[in-house]
Amino acid sequence: MASKAESIKLFSLATPQMRAFHLAWLAFFACFFAWFACAPLMPVIKGEFGLTPAQIANINIAAVAITIIVRMVVGPMCDRFGPRKAHTALLLLGAIPVFGVAAAQTYESFLFFRLLIGAIGASFVVTQYHTSVMFGPRVVGTANAATAGWGNAGGGATQALMPLILAAILMLGVSETMGWRLALIVPGVLMVIVGVLYWKFTQDCPQGNYDALRKAGIEIEGGKKGGWASFKQAAANYRVWLLFLTYGACFGVELFIHNVAAVYYVDQFGLNLKQAGLAAGSFGLLALFARALGGYVSDRMALRGSLNARVSLLFVLMLGEGAGLIWFAHADTATLAIFAMLSFGLCVHMACGATYALVPFIDRKALGGVTGIIGAGGNVGAVAAGFLLKGVGSTQQTLAILGYLVAATALCAIALRFSASTNAEHALAAA
Q1: Which domain holds residue 361?
Q2: What are the TM regions of this chain, as residue ranges (predicted)?
Q3: Dihedral, CA atoms, 360, 366, 367, 371, nearest 10 degrees?
Q4: Which residue has the higher pLDDT, 201 or 232?
Q5: Contacts of 52 (CB under 8 A, 6+ apart)
């Protein structure tokens, strides 16, 4: 019977594990691209609807708010229905509000569709679940971090590409009012294409699809049928909530930066739309390697030490992120701000990878629930940052406050430490 892969054959599509690996990151990339496609165009959309700062804050909060609920739901649904069905449904149904936001005529309708688009952020949970059931302990951290990181790169790609797509459309003689709407159709089409590919070329786990395995009486990893039982078991584990907080402090900050970076560079340093998009995009494109690096380093440290080595790495990265955020907030030139952003961005992405390198070891019997709850923590962090910005009224001050809060959250990482017996069990499984 097929088993979990103990190596990552990057240039192969011959095995179900590697097909899941590549389509998982591609699906998350498409979703992330669509999720934040509006952000780099906000200076144009702001003028279209005459948006106030408070309304822009509401849009930024809406973009990440509903993802909290959907991530918590879709994790257990992966246990119940399998990641293949969950991801395909998310891609195809999620494309509908992406097309809808392009047709919005008022602030209220734009806000409504922006809220619904947030649901596709749950793609991350399915991505992490799928690689967690496909890869073994030696490489699961790297697999999780690489797929999430390359998917997250969709956030950087959208910051850089959407202004260019808009510019290309405008060169054809289309008005700016119609141009940004046509540009937003592109990510929706991409989601539909990837959804079809996911259904056609993936399976739920190395042994096959969950429905067929259950009918054959074969036990699926975790043993449970998923749903509410998976969620309840995960919610009873204190380590889940500690990682919920750390993920809120790293991925939540990442989402917040994606939402505000372009406008911040325009308002604070006077960059034009293309320059601001490229500057903001460089932060997201760090995900191409930095998140995978976090998972890889975590895997290597665990092989030489224990699960607690993974914990120590996360603690150091969280401290680095907090210090870098404070530096970014106090940068007084665009050049220095970009350098500071890339510095703390490296820690942000690596911390995200290090977090999900720990996830498969928290509770194997409730993997979907664990993955979903911790993933939702990232969006809780982003929503909290959005409300903080709305209350403070200054992006610069908000960034500084976030820096101190992130550094304090590093203490949650230290509180994760595992017992000697758990470390011994992990060492045996990885041998």
Answers
A1: 16-206+225-430
A2: 21-42, 54-74, 86-104, 110-129, 150-172, 178-199, 240-266, 278-297, 309-330, 336-359, 366-389, 401-420
A3: -100
A4: 201
A5: none
